[in-house]
UniProtKB/TrEMBL annotation:
PANTHER family: CYTOCHROME B5 REDUCTASE 4 (PTHR46237:SF1), CYTOCHROME B5 REDUCTASE 4 FAMILY MEMBER (PTHR46237). This is Cytochrome b5 heme-binding domain-containing protein. Keywords: Heme, Iron, Metal-binding. It comes from Dimargaris verticillata. Residues 50-126 form the Cytochrome b5 heme-binding domain.
C-alpha cells in the first residue's frame, strides 16, 4: 500500500497525484532526526543575528549549499532542511532564492513552518528598495 489511509480518497492521476509523490529520504533523515538536529544546538541559520532582507538579498541564496526562502514574510535558511524534506530536495529547491509562500500554501498549507524551521529563521522580509 502506498501511504496511509488518507490516500484512499486521494484523487487519481494528474497534478494532484504528482504533487503528493513520496520522496525517498536517506537514512538518518526522518522527521524525528530533523527534530533531533534542531535541538542539538548546532547552528542552522548561518547568520549571527536576525535581519531584514529584501527579495533581492534572498535571491542570492539559491543553490543547494546556500538556499534561503521566504514563507509568509519570514526568511529561512532551508539548506540544512533540504535532505530532510519529506517531499524531497528537488521540490524544496523550487523555492530556493524565492518567496515560496504561494507554492507552499498550494502543496501543504497545514504544515507548521514556524515550528518546523524555527532554528533556520534568518530574518524577516523587507520591501525591495
Ligand atoms: C519551506 C518550505 C517547505 C517546508 C517546510 C515543507 C515541509 C514539508 C513537510 C513537513 C512535509 C510532510 C507533511 C505531510 O506529508 O503532511 C512535506 C511534504 C511534501 N512537500 Fe514540502 N515543504 C516545503 C516546501 C515544499 C515545496 C515548495 C514543494 C513543492 C514544490 C513541496 C512538496 C512536498 C510534497 C510533494 C510533499 C509530500 C511528500 C509525501 O507525501 O510523502 N514542499 N513538506
Amino acid at each position: 500500500m502506498v501511504g496511509g489511509p488518507q490516500r484512499l480518497s486521494a484523487p487519481r492521476g494528474g497534478m494532484a497525484r504528482r504533487r503528493r509523490e513520496k520522496a525517498v529520504l536517506a537514512p538518518g533523515h526522518s522527521p524525528l532526526d530533523w527534530a533531533r538536529l534542531k535541538s542539538s544546538g548546532k547552528d542552522l541559520r548561518g547568520v549571527q543575528m536576525l535581519g531584514r532582507y529584501t527579495l533581492a538579498d534572498v535571491k542570492k541564496h539559491n543553490t543547494e549549499t546556500d538556499a534561503w526562502c521566504v514563507i509568509r514574510g519570514k526568511v529561512y535558511n532551508i539548506t540544512p532542511y533540504l535532505d530532510f524534506h519529506p517531499g524531497g530536495k528537488k521540490d524544496l529547491m523550487r523555492v530556493a532564492g524565492r518567496d515560496g509562500t504561494k507554492l507552499f500554501m498550494y502543496t501543504h498549507s497545514w504544515v507548521n513552518v514556524d515550528a518546523l524551521l524555527d532554528q533556520c529563521l534568518v530574518g524577516i522580509l523587507a520591501p525591495d528598495a
